[in-house]
Amino acid sequence: MIIWGVLGACLAVAGVVVLFAVGAGALTQAPAAHSSTGLWTRAVDKLRGTNPRTWVFLLVAVVLAGGAALWTGWPVMVVIMPVAVIGIPALLRAPPARDIELLESLDRWVRGLAATMGAGRSIADAVRASARNPPERLKDTLIRMVQRLDDRWSAPAAFLRMADELDSPDADAVLASLILATQRGGQGAVTTLAALADSIQERLKVMREIEAERAKPRYVVRQVTLITVVVLGAALVFGRDFFRPYGTPTGQAVLIALVALYAGSLLQLKRMTIPRHRARILRSQA
After folding, report:
1. How far apart are CA 165 and CA 60, in angstroms?
2. Angle formed at CA 62 by CA 60 and CA 66, multiple of 5 degrees
3. pLDDT tens for each residue of 66-114
4. Per-residue pLDDT, 118
5. Rounded mean pLDDT of 145-161?
6. Is the model's pLDDT at 31 over the cut of 50?
7. Taking the model in full, what pTM does it have?
8. Residue 38: inside a domain
9. How far apart are CA 45 and CA 112, in angstroms?
10. Lowest mean pLDDT across 3-7, 59-63, 163-167, 233-237
């Protein structure tokens, strides 16, 4: 009865957290567009920007932590359960393939420019035309690019600012070629863009192969982690005498150290699968 009472209390606390989150707009509103200086206002802005899925995981972690701590009698479960529910999935999740997404958008954009310029348009006119049906990843950047051209920016200066906004070595290579083409008056630009599109395709192929290789160890670790959690959970339920030493203060310290080591190894694995930062080749003087 005591266990059920405490579990009910945990659910009540979780309900209060949900009501506070809804009241603050964390689950129903987008992040605030303005910046604040007050500590409380910044905290509320942070809550509003929290993904609803994160709130669900947080509430599940709160309930499981309270229930596990009471059932096992291990206070350390209050720390371990949130790490298991929120931290480990985050460490095992594949990082977003932003470089591949950007390259795919650049490939589509460059091929569209080449097709438009093949009809006799200048580079600036081709860029304006491309902004009418742009790749989603480049939509806002191309709109600002056209606005600069309409404000009488030179094409090289506008391309340099676009490169700063995209902040990618791959985008720098594409925009550097366009800058050189504009400085030559557009001569040979269609041939340059066609060669550039082929180069992007080759790089995309290599990057997809690299990403597939990086995904293999993540998949293996996910399987090992799942099996470990299932086996340990079953052993904790059906063979609690085996875990009795962890109920002592020393055992609690050992348990938290083992969990920290495992989480640290997952963090190291995640860092190893993140692409290395590459230096850019274009910088505007603004």
Report:
1. 39
2. 120
3. 887 888 788 888 888 887 777 788 788 887 788 889 999 999 998 888 8
4. 74
5. 90
6. no
7. 0.66
8. no
9. 40
10. 3-7
| Total residue count of the chain as it appears in this document | 286
The two tokens of residue 134 are 């742009």
107 located within any domain:
yes
Instruction: Say how many CA atoms lie within 13 Å of 64 toward its Cβ.
Output: 15
Structure tokens at 199: 């180069």
Are the C-beta atoms of residues 76 and 255 closer than 8 Å to each other? Answer: yes
Assess whether 59 and 106 both reside in one domain: no
- 219 located within any domain: no
Q: Could you tell me if 165 and 93 are in contact, meaning their C-beta atoms sit under 8 angstroms apart?
A: no
- Within this chain, do residues 78 and 2 fall inside the same structural domain, yes or no? yes
Same domain, 109 and 199: yes
Domain count for the chain: 2
CA distances from 116 to 26, 77, 80, 113, 282 (A): 45, 62, 58, 5, 25
Q: Are 69 and 166 contained in the same domain? A: no
Inter-residue contact 196 to 177 (CB < 8 Å): yes
Question: In which domain, by residue range, is 71 found?
Answer: 1-18+49-93
* Tokens of residue 205, six digits: 């192929």
CA distances to 55, 122, 158 from 86, in Å: 10, 52, 43
Which of 62, 77, 54 is CA-nearest to residue 7?
62
The answer to whether residue 24 sits within a structural domain is: no
Q: Extract the tokens encoding 267.
A: 């963090």
In the Cβ-directed half-sphere of 193, how many Cα atoms lie within 13 Å? Answer: 27
CB contact at 8 A, 166 and 141:
yes
Q: Are residues 193 and 102 part of one domain? A: yes
